[in-house]
Amino acid sequence: MALSYKARKRWALLILLVGMPIYVVVAVSLIDSIARLPIWAEVPAYILLGFGWILPFKRVFLGVGQPDPEATHDTDRT
Predict the structure, then answer these.
(1) pTM for this one?
(2) Count of domains for the chain
(3) Structural Rg of the chain based on CA atoms
(4) Residue 67 belongs to some domain of the structure
């Protein structure tokens, strides 16, 4: 079942406002707990984790910044 535009917009907002801060805390804690990686290993790990959160939510964020495709526009009114 595909999500409606309104539902995707709400889910995107929830993911960004609630899920993203939680993910950042977990990612930083994970990297910190791995036996003090050297800087040359930390940077790629943070880059990988930074882009890794996008993959499961890619479909939710697609087209959210665009106008609602299902909205009816009355162009006949003057």
Answers:
(1) 0.73
(2) 1
(3) 19
(4) no
- Tokens 């050297």 belong to 38
Instruction: Please report the DSSP string for 12-76 in residue order.
Output: HHHIIIIIHHHHHHHHHHHHHHTTT--HHHHHHHHHHHHHHTHHHHHHHHTTTTSPPTT-----S
> Is residue 11 one of the residues assigned to a domain?
no
Name every residue whose Cβ is closer than 8 Å to that of residue 46 and which is 6 or more positions away in sequence. 27, 31
Per-residue pLDDT of the chain (78 residues; tens, 9 = 90+): 688 888 889 999 999 999 999 999 999 998 888 877 788 888 898 999 999 988 888 888 888 888 887 777 655 555
With a CB cutoff of 8 Å and minimum separation 6, the contacts of 49 are 27, 30, 31
Residue-number span of the structural domain to which 27 is assigned: 20-61
